[in-house]
């Protein structure tokens, strides 16, 4: 706190990250939702200018007792909200919220919460942009991204409403973005396509790669669950695989202390490079640290989901296991050093498999293998509840969403009309 021994607030000199000498003063103005102290900071290039800004701030505070809560800025409140949220949500959700706050709500950071109305929310969504991993804008935001932005902003404003900072939540008056044509979406691999990919993968000289492709195509598991698969979870005697873990990149934060103007005591910019880095996970989060930022975390669906392994896949896994060089982490699929396989490399190899099978890889996504398993099981009359348990869906509606009947199944279904109506007798 920039307060002198006499109790007066005074501007103090500091050096920013660019080596420029500036002046700064801070005043406590209350508490964030997580109980941490809120501060207002003023900075300037000269002592006189900074002191003038400080006196203006103190004058406003004296006039109202404390700075009016309604004038709390979106950026300030969102930062405190996110810090509180990190104790309750998984790393992936935290990363999503942080990206939304920093990148998509950034230009509204200095907007007072009381000034955010439904039209403001609609404007944020309408003008949202998508970005590359390098932070370069690449076009208008898609429906999924807009939904994420709305979800994040809704939770922030709902928390502000609960704190009685604003009289109502303006996001509730704005509809969730919807696709104009809900009929478009992911498809499912056909039976001939699956057979051809299995045939190609069976001929790979790299038995580890071939086994991984077979495992993907014949289990309906998610990519993270496949790359996080362990031999310990596979029981060849019962031909069952228990989905206990998934591979996930978990971010790490600085553990060396707090930053001053963006500079940390360790001198590193990224938290993952800090010698005392700490995992950014909620309280009680169950995970197994691997190499770098990789970790095994609990799956999206309930832990302990059982996936039956069909006999041909059992044989492939048995042959592969005899040649497996092993992983210190017990991973079923790994690189030459025993470390987890990079998800991007896995996707690149799967796209190559599709190309080798004579398919247009650009017109398909890896998730279609899950759709294909659901479709095949449903076509064979397998109960929806059992399908849910195998692939880890939360509801029958999700199974319906993943199921895609092909032309052969449609024709077979319509042929039942002949049986029911006895059409041959009418002719």
UniProtKB/TrEMBL annotation:
Alphabetic keyword roster: DNA integration, DNA recombination, DNA-binding
Keyword Flavoprotein (UniProt): no
One term of GO molecular function: DNA binding
Domain Tyr recombinase: 184-415
InterPro entries documented for this protein: DNA_brk_join_enz, Integrase-like_cat_sf, Integrase_catalytic, Integrase_recombinase_N, Integrase_SAM-like_N, Tyrosine_recombinase_XerCD
Coiled-coil blocks: none
GO-annotated biological processes: DNA integration; DNA recombination
Membership in a protein family: Belongs to the 'phage' integrase family.
Record protein name field: Integrase
UniProt organism field: Bifidobacterium mongoliense DSM 21395
């Amino acid at each position: 706190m920039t307060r002198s021994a006499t109790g007066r607030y005074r501007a103090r000199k500091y050096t920013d990250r660019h080596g420029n000498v500036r002046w700064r003063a801070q005043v406590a103005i209350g508490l964030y939702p997580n109980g941490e102290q809120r501060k207002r900071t003023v900075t300037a290039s000269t002592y006189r200018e900074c002191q003038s800004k400080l006196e203006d701030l103190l004058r406003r505070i004296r006039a109202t007792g404390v700075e009016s809560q309604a004038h709390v800025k979106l950026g300030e409140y969102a930062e405190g909200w996110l810090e509180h949220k990190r104790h309750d949500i998984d790393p992936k959700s935290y990363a999503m919220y942080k990206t939304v706050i920093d990148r998509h709500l950034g230009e509204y950071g200095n907007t007072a919460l009381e000034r955010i109305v439904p039209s403001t929310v609609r404007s944020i969504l309408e003008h949202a942009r998508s970005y590359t991993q390098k932070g370069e804008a690449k076009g208008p935001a898609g429906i999924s991204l807009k939904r994420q932005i709305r979800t994040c902003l809704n939770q922030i404003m709902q928390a502000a409403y609960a704190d009685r900072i604003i009289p109502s939540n303006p996001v509730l008056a704005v509809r969730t973005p919807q696709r104009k044509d809900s009929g478009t979406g992911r498809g499912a691999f056909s039976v001939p396509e699956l057979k051809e990919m299995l045939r190609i993968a069976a001929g790979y000289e790299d038995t580890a790669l071939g086994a991984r492709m077979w495992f993907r195509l014949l289990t309906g598991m998610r990519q993270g669950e496949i790359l996080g698969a362990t031999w310990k979870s596979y029981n060849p005697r019962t031909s069952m695989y228990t989905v206990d873990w998934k591979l996930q990149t978990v971010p790490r934060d600085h553990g060396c202390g707090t930053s001053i103007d963006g500079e940390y005591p360790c001198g590193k910019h990224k938290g993952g490079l800090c010698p005392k880095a700490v995992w950014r996970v909620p309280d009680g989060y169950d995970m197994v640290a691997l190499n770098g930022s990789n970790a095994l975390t609990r799956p999206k669906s309930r832990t302990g989901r059982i996936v039956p392994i069909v006999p041909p896949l059992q044989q492939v896994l048995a042959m592969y296991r005899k040649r497996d060089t092993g992983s210190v982490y017990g991973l079923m699929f790994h690189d030459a050093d025993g470390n987890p396989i990079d998800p991007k490399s896995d996707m690149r190899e799967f796209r190559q498999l599709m190309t080798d099978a004579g398919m247009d890889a650009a017109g398909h996504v890896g998730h279609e293998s899950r759709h294909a398993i659901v479709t095949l099981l449903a076509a064979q009359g397998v109960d929806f509840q059992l399908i849910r348990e195998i692939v880890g869906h939360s509801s029958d509606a999700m199974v319906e969403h993943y199921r895609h009947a092909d032309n052969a199944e449609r024709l077979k279904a319509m042929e039942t009309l002949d049986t029911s109506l006895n059409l041959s007798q009418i002719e």
